[in-house]
């Protein structure tokens, strides 16, 4: 991916489809710190959902290391500051991801 441009809409919908590794988000020169944190938090949410689905018997797995790396990247970006106030942004994205007429 080019360091000069990022499709933010795509990154907010599916960070793993835009970035290969959480470290790539942190290192991306064209993103602001707030954008990096937002993308990492959305990615964290996606990975946690995948882990929960795997725990419920759906196929998947191997998210543990990725989650650890996302959390380390978030820690580096926030220097330990609370990021809980940014959670509502995920609800917006999740709502947009639902198919028309879906549940």
Indicate the percent of residues in helices. 55-70%
Main sheet attributes: strand count, strand direction, barrel closure: none
Q: So what's the overall shape?
A: globular
Give the low-confidence spans: 85-103
What would the average pLDDT be, to the nearest integer?
76
Query: How many beta-strand elements?
Result: 0
Describe the protein in words.
- Helices cover 63% and strands 0% of the residues.
- It starts with 7 loop residues before the first helix and ends in a 6-residue tail after the last helix.
- The chain has 6 helices and no strands.
- α4 runs antiparallel to α5.
- The chain is mostly helical and 103 residues long.
- The chain has one domain (8-94).
List keywords for this structure.
103 residues, mainly alpha
Topology:
Blueprint: H1 8-13, H2 15-18, H3 22-27, H4 33-55, H5 63-78, H6 88-97
Quick recap of the structure?
With 103 residues, the protein is mainly α.
């Amino acid at each position: 991916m080019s360091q000069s441009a990022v499709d933010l809409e795509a990154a907010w919908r599916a960070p793993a489809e835009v970035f290969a590794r959480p470290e790539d988000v942190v290192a991306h020169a064209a993103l602001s710190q707030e954008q990096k944190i937002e993308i990492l938090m959305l990615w964290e949410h996606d990975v946690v959902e995948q882990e929960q689905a795997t725990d419920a018997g759906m196929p998947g797995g191997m998210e543990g290391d990725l989650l650890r790396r996302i959390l380390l990247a978030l820690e580096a970006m926030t220097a330990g500051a609370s990021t809980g106030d940014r959670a509502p942004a995920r609800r917006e994205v999740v709502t947009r991801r639902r198919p028309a007429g879906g549940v």
